[in-house]
Amino acid sequence: MVSRTDFDIAIIGGGIVGLAAGYKIARSHPGLKIGLFEKEAELATHQTGHNSGVIHSGLYYKPGSEKALTCTAGRRELVEFAAEHGIAHHICGKIVVATAPEELDGLESLYERGRSNGVEGLERLDGDGIRTIEPACAGIAGLKVACTGIIDFVAVARKLGELIIGSGSQNRVLTSHEVRALDRHDYFTRIVTNQGSYDTRFIINCAGLQCDRVAIMDQIEPGVRIIPFRGDYYELTEAAAGKVRALIYPVPDPAFPFLGVHLTRMLDGSVECGPNAVLAFKREGYGRRAFSWRDTWQALAYGGTLRLFSRHWRYGLGECRRALSRKRFARDVQRLVPDITEANLRPGKCGIRAQAVGPRGELVDDFHIVTGVRSVHVLNAPSPAATAALAIGERICRIAHRHFGLDSGAAKAVAERAPQVEPDKTGKRKGRRGGR
Questions:
Q1: Which of 180, 169, 157 is nearest to 44 (CA)?
Q2: What is the dihedral of CA 276, 281, 285, 291, to 10 degrees?
Q3: Which of 157, 216, 243, 307 would you label with 225, given CA atoms 20 to 30 Å apart?
Q4: Res 338: pLDDT
Q5: pLDDT digits (tens, 9 = 90+) for 307-335
Q6: Residue 169: what are its φ and ψ, rounded to 5°?
Q7: In angstroms, rounded to a whole number, what is the distance separating the alpha carbons of residues 5 and 33?
Q8: Which are the contacts of 178, defined by CB distance < 8 A and separation ≥ 6?
Q9: DSSP state of 112
């Protein structure tokens, strides 16, 4: 018998990055069988479904970095994609506001970065210019970023899933399939899930909050660990929501990959404030009391976490205080919009950021992708990953093409090299176990 596999490429993770990678591969290599595995019953359940919904401009990122390159290109492609497929979005623009003289240098650095990164529609603002755009906003100087917007990222993800299935009769998007082990054989890898086993020639790991564990299952040392950071949001009451027309951001601290508490008018007209950034005690725990012994132990036992905390304990303490006190949270909001009070804030959603941390305690700021024997592992895809997803997917597609030798005859060629025996799906498992 000719050796067969269920898929040529299996993608682990049904967030927007994994879906974008599958979409790009399906378009450029239509002869390949693609399977996408998502452990939840719905796509885009975790980071994609809990982010701020902002289409980022590319303003913040170091020129020449992957984040800068993919954000600008990905943003433009995302807006075109949304328009083509009727996905709700609005290019409303935003302002970044300096509220104290010591923030002016940072504001100017953002302006120069934005120009270097090809961000269109940048405009310097004085105090009067700020209030022309956002009458309730305080600030001594600012930047108008006209190309920023908001979008329904979950709708984008679902459409990508539909297009993957529609581009090939053998392509499948398998929800409620938790990957529990990877058994690597000579010519294929067996993916063991809670609903059975599937054989694939190649694997692309886009598992987000679980990506380091999936890499270990594939016998890859990721070189980083995912440390989850929780971001809590508040929502403005209807009476206060009218004080914000679009998006208002502070000047961020360049030492950290977090943008600080900001205000975002959503597609439905509501206004969100946040997020903060504190250690989460469960990788997929969307609540202040969510806890996992396994996740907490793995985070705190990792040397990189301890070094990170020892280096930045003052910043971390400030974030924890704000997370525990609505009053402190309101003070940060009032730096941008003084008329908003504690009484105007009501609890909103919570998101978890999959932050890669290196062994010396360094926060990995750019995308981090490594390759295995027959695998590609996306081990850090931080914000603006949702905005940049289509560009990141294109990059993953190029890596897969180069690393796997993909072309129109790739599946046939690999099959011809493989043993002429049907794989035994009841054989002994050789891979390592992990959590996905």
A1: 157
A2: -140
A3: 157
A4: 96
A5: 999 988 887 888 888 888 899 999 999 99
A6: -65, -20
A7: 9
A8: 39, 193, 194, 436
A9: H
Place of tokens 């294109």: 394
What is the DSSP code string of 284-323?
A: T--STT---HHHHHHHHHSHHHHHHHHHSHHHHHHHHHHH
d(CA 336, CA 216): 44
Fold of 7-46+154-222+366-417: FAD/NAD(P)-binding domain (3.50.50)
**Environment class of 365 (CB within 10 Å of its CB; exposed 0-12, middle 13-18, buried 19+):** middle
Spell out a b/e string for 280-306, using b for 16 or more CB atoms within 10 Å of the CB, else e.
bbbbbbbeeebebeebbebbeebebbe
> What is the amino acid identity at position 387?
T
- Angle formed at CA 164 by CA 163 and CA 166, multiple of 5 degrees: 60
Contact indicator for 229, 352 with CB cutoff of 8 Å: yes
Of 360, 363, 333, the residue nearest 345 (C-alpha): 333
> How far is Cα 192 from Cα 409, in angstroms, rounded to an integer?
27
Q: Where are the domains of the chain?
A: 7-46+154-222+366-417, 225-237+271-363
State the pTM of this model. 0.91
pLDDT tens per residue, range 237-271: 999 999 999 999 999 887 676 678 899 999 999 99
Buried b (16+ CB within 10 A) or exposed e, 18-28: bbbbbbbbbeb
How many CA atoms are closer than 13 Å to the CA of 69, on its beta-carbon side?
9
* Cα–Cα dist 34/12, whole Å: 11
pLDDT, tens digit (0-9, with 9 covering 90-100), for 185-228: 988 999 999 999 999 999 999 999 999 999 999 999 999 999 99
Residue type, 394: E
What does DSSP assign to residue 193? Answer: E
Measured distance CA(299)–CA(274) in Å, rounded: 24
3-class state of residue 419 by DSSP: coil
- Whether residue 384 is preceded by a cis peptide bond, meaning omega within 30 degrees of 0, is yes
